[in-house]
Specification:
alpha+beta; Aminopeptidase
């Protein structure tokens, strides 16, 4: 089941060139197919290259009594599949909540589909094997081309 203007397949295709923009556009238009499932998307910060970092919260309410599940995708720039999996999970929880009723009753979901949009863009357009963020650590490192921070360390 798919809401006409928020269906994931409407925004994503197999070409990588605009997928980041398509994911962000889809996130901002998200809503659930059932009224008791609350979906909120927000920008929790901006990267060094001024790209937004988007968070999606999916809940059925009464958050004080529920545990939270936090999921991030795209922390390593070259691991494109992690963003696709996080986006797929958001899509499943919002468009098919009846299939995930027990999970939605027990947990609130906080999902960041693309945590490293700068690195992701760099891996798509310039260096397929780029893994880190795009932050310059210091002048000495950047002089020798050692740019970026591994976001997991």
């Amino acid at each position: 089941m798919c809401c006409d203007d928020v269906c994931l397949s409407t925004y994503l295709n197999l070409e990588m060139n605009d997928s980041k923009k398509q994911i962000f556009k889809w996130i901002t238009r998200l809503r659930s197919t059932r009224s008791e499932v609350y979906v909120n998307s927000s920008t929790i910060g901006y990267t060094l290259e001024d790209r937004p970092i988007k968070l999606v919260k999916i809940s059925t309410g009464d958050s004080a009594k529920k545990r939270a599940v936090f999921l991030d995708g795209g922390i390593h720039a070259r691991e494109w599949i992690s963003s696709a999996v996080a986006t797929y999970i958001v899509n499943e929880l919002t468009t098919k909540p009846e299939q995930h009723e027990e999970l939605l009753k027990r947990y609130d979901f906080y999902i960041i589909p693309l945590l490293n949009p700068d690195g992701y863009a760099h891996s798509v357009y310039y260096n397929r094997f780029w893994r880190k963020s795009r932050r310059t650590v210091d002048a000495f490192s950047s002089f020798f081309g050692c740019r970026g921070v591994d976001l997991v360390r």
